[in-house]
Amino acid sequence: xxxxxxxxxxxxxxxxxxxxxxxxxxxxxxxxxxxxxxxxxxxxxxxxxxxxxxxxxxxxxxxxxxxxxxxxxxxxxxxxxxxxxxxxxxxxxxxxxxxxxxxxxxxxxxxxxxxxxxxxxxxxxxxxxxxxxxxxxxxxxxxxxxxxxxxxxxxxxxxxxxxxxxxxxxxxxxxxxxxxxxxxxxxxxxxxxxxxxxxxxxxxxxxxxxxxxxxxxxxxxxxxxxxxxxxxxxxxxxxxxxxxxxxxxxxxxxxxxxxxxxxxxxxxxxxxxxxxxxxxxxxxxxxxxxxxxxxxxxx
Length: 299
Hints:
The protein is α/β, with parallel strands linked by helices. It contains eleven helices and 15 strands. Helix 3 (51-60) runs parallel beside helix 4 (83-93) and helix 6 packs parallel to helix 7 (187-194). The two termini are 22 Å apart.
């Protein structure tokens, strides 16, 4: 594998994006600003069987960076592999993990010291794999009311301070439920207003914003400068509004990505949670091909 400097030079000189595709120079970014990322939850079935082989295949498609899930804090393992060993495999594949989704929601009602102990484990795991962000990805349905959103906001600030003090960064990932109206109040508004921007960054799931928010991704980013440091990019089925492979759906990503403010962006991850046309590995193959040809030039 090329190191980063050599690879960038190679791309500039040859116009080749990756070994898996050779496209006209007119559609190729000669020096993309960001690594093409993949949320590995997309291929969770393959990851459960062969995590290293699955990442190797994703790398061959041009994905250079990933977001993990499923950390076992008590055993310090990712996908059943000790974190330091997992990191050695990542280095061998020239693949980075910039963020991880961690299971905070299941500890929502536990004493704060239990949650803080788990955060310490996540910090240790993240340091072992060279991951910059620890991300809160989910809130269980039983906690999705206004009072619990206020409690969540306090927890986010506390965890954000703990993570920041460790030299890492912390973010919150949205779904659709944050945009549900509760007699004039919305969970996302509470999170935006109640969290400290220096401690709690935001990971925007563009699909869910397009699906459920009355504001566009462009509007949310403009209203909250500096906060949306990561994006999830996935498409929406034109009929069912379920997930779809990139380019097969209804979201006009050419228009969106060509105009949106990217000043705060650090990482993005292509994702598809399900509803695969064939299977998850074919999905990341098709999405990578479309993304490199039509969208990577904007990032």
